[in-house]
């Protein structure tokens, strides 16, 4: 007993976490702990013995609510520190936005709700759809590239207005289409997209290491532009659609930037320039399944 | 009528089967359809082989029937069959066929250009000859010009074959 007391005094800073001591714990130790609290302000209090005497194994004398009162938990309510996620959730999203008044009553500003009430409630509720799995949208599809197509490969285009032309492959874009160039001075094929499936990959490769392709050549750059202004509905619907494609200055400069690098490398290989100028064709006795490309 | 006979020591070319394309020597005849055959220098183990898949070549080796592989090998190397075979037109045709099948698209283009150039040169010389003969009509001059044309033709043939 005395030894225990001495031990308790000697080690004031020792925390005994979660250790539920038996009834042998003396009030003397409590006094000691109080003294020590006075000594070191930041000391953790020692745990009290169980306030719920045991009747039989697994059965205590007092109920949950009685224990709540006995342990004075009404006085000890702690909350965990607020995490970043909870903080973010607390930030209320903007409910309204202020926009300027245009049109007839110009000047001044009006307040507009961002999230509006629905303007239509269906009479029948739509039944809950079954969960599906693995159906990804196009932007998340896995893009594959045939092993025979590497940067610098000469490809033969099979469809489109440039069918039969031999063309140099540069890189695969984000949607999976291949970025390809003639070069323009050789066979009048500009920087263009080609589909992997409609292309024959030959085994002829141009060494394209070190060629820098501008970063802004993406799918959005090559996508066809469509005007959407349905204001004229009385006629003149077809006039606004761009029928004539105009080559912008940016396309010309990009073409020059890429082609100048590639042309230098093409010149090094004998007869390659003439090869790229020629078109691919089949004749009698020539069978594609027997050709080695 | 027949010049190549099945005999002991006849070198044969295997046309189909697992050992297609290899040379073997006939060591012994088993019965009407099969022969005991060995190709120590061409990677064919000593085995029975039907005559149907063999095509006889011009080469004959000297060794007694059922001689063991060592003797066959010695005879083969003495006659230098491998080199002689590579020099025959037969083997060269096979090689040319293989090369043609392996041609890539770029190679086909290069061959097309070479052929075109060659034909142009030949046609040019021919036209010259025809002009000469029609203008002058002298037999001696014609003979001289045709000799020149043949020489230039041979000069063009060799770069094309190197392809």
From TrEMBL, chain A:
Alphabetized UniProt keyword annotations: Cytoplasm, Endoplasmic reticulum, Isopeptide bond, Phosphoprotein, Ribonucleoprotein, Ribosomal protein, Ubl conjugation
Region (Disordered): 1-58, 84-109
GO molecular function, one term: structural constituent of ribosome
Top-level division of the source organism's lineage: Eukaryota
Gene3D superfamilies named among the record's database cross-references: 2.30.30.30
Subcellular location: Cytoplasm, Cytosol; Endoplasmic reticulum
Domain Large ribosomal subunit protein uL6 N-terminal: 41-100
Function: Component of the large ribosomal subunit. The ribosome is a large ribonucleoprotein complex responsible for the synthesis of proteins in the cell.
Protein name as annotated: 60S ribosomal protein L6
Species, as recorded: Spheniscus mendiculus
From TrEMBL, chain B:
Entry keyword Ribonucleoprotein: yes
Cellular component aspect of the GO annotation: cytosolic large ribosomal subunit
CDD domains: eL14 (cd23702)
Keyword S-adenosyl-L-methionine in record: no
Compositionally biased tracts (Basic residues): 129-139
One Pfam family this sequence matches: Ribosomal_L14e
Region of interest called Disordered, as start-end residue ranges on this chain: 120-163
Large ribosomal subunit protein eL14 domain ranges (all copies): 46-119
Stored InterPro entries: Rib_uL2_dom2 (IPR014722), Ribosomal_eL14 (IPR039660), Ribosomal_eL14_dom (IPR002784), Translation_prot_SH3-like_sf (IPR008991)
Basic and acidic residues bias (residue ranges): 140-156
Gene Ontology MF terms in the entry: RNA binding; structural constituent of ribosome
Organism domain of life: Eukaryota
A single GO BP: ribosomal large subunit biogenesis
Annotated family: Belongs to the eukaryotic ribosomal protein eL14 family.
The protein's name: Large ribosomal subunit protein eL14
Gene name as annotated: RPL14
